[in-house]
Amino acid sequence: MGLEKEMANVAAGLGLATLLAAPLAAAQEKPRWYKGNTHTHTINTDGDSSPIDVVRFYRDQGYNFLVLSDHDSITPTEGLNAIFGTAAANATDRTALPFRPFMLIPGEEVTDAFTPEPRAGQDPKARDLGRKEIHLTGLNVARVVARQKGNSPADTLQRDVDAIRAASGVPIVNHPNFVWSLTADDLKPLRRAPLLEIWNGHMQTNNLGGGDRPSVESMWDEVLSAGTMMYGVAADDAHFFKTPPLPSAPSAPGRAYVMVRSDSFTAAALVEAMERGDFYSSTGVELSDYAVGPAGVTLKVSAAGLSRYRVLFIGRGGRVLKTVDVTPAPPVGATSLLAPRQAEAVAYEWKGDEGYVRAKIIDSNGLMAWTQPVVVPRP
């Protein structure tokens, strides 16, 4: 039995999807990485800047694609793409001259909520204390998606997922720890919902958890371990592009993004790559190489300045399977402290009992990156 079929069968038995990055890359001619942000707001809802100013920021910062995910509405992208976008063509065909592809992908943040009915004898005004904010981004939706409401947080989520799918979009479940709204148990039953924000740049999304509530990353591992595959997304959720309240910079842009691998620079190709998990997420750490093969996974950090790195390979239940410290070295003969440095590739070999394997990379200044979980076949 071939490896792809074997892994697909294992995945089906676990109820998990399978990421086969190496076979995928082999089938494509020249796939490349595209930097994008899937969650951003403008003055059309609760942002502080016009769509054109928001788009200009990301274009100038070297992003390749952007989703303007205003609440319960779709900010038109045709005019913005006419000004800032590049032709929908295979970017790898442009080899003679520098090419900075950029596009807007239509999107919407479906801003739903679930509020339980008041208990017997409870002050009706107190029911708002149990309110759960349930927000999802619809990527590349063809029309505005209305809030669907539901009988529970999980039911509301699934109804919104189904509505986004009906509008030809791909859903992302946003910031589950925002006002402590969602739990892993709400996410486990989801179907046709391949994407979960594991890091959100908003100042009230409680990415790291607290008190009796786990971090979003821990929730992610619990969901994966229960047999529901969701790929992890990092996004800005940017609202403030002008001088933010000091000393903090809440909901500022440029804090988190995805790096999507595709051989074609079209909205459909980028969204499809995300849906199959061919991307990694980051708050600033970037990879120069990442591949999954028959024996395991390898990656190489793109060294930045004098930063050093720790790579964690993580499996079922959030168990750390292997830790590798990476100290990039300057080239032989370098005489400057600031000479560009190179990091050695690191690898993890399958054992067969991991369930899945994903990597988390942490740099010495607190920036992070996450690769997507790969289902590991038993020997």
Report on this structure.
The structure is a single chain. This protein is of the alpha+beta class and 379 residues long. It has 2 domains: 1-30 and 284-379, Immunoglobulin-like (Sandwich); 31-119 and 128-276, Alpha-Beta Barrel (TIM Barrel). It is built from 8 helices and 18 strands. Strands 1, 2, 3, 9, 10, 13, 14, 16, 17 and 18 form a 10-stranded mixed β-sheet that branches. A 5-stranded mixed β-sheet has the order 4-5-6-7-8. Strands 11-12-15 form a 3-stranded antiparallel β-sheet. Strand 11 (286-292) and strand 12 (296-302) form a beta hairpin. The protein is globular. The two termini are 12 Å apart.
Please give a handful of descriptors for the protein shown:
alpha+beta, 10-stranded mixed sheet, Immunoglobulin-like, 18 strands, 19% helix, 5-stranded mixed sheet, 2 domains, 379 residues
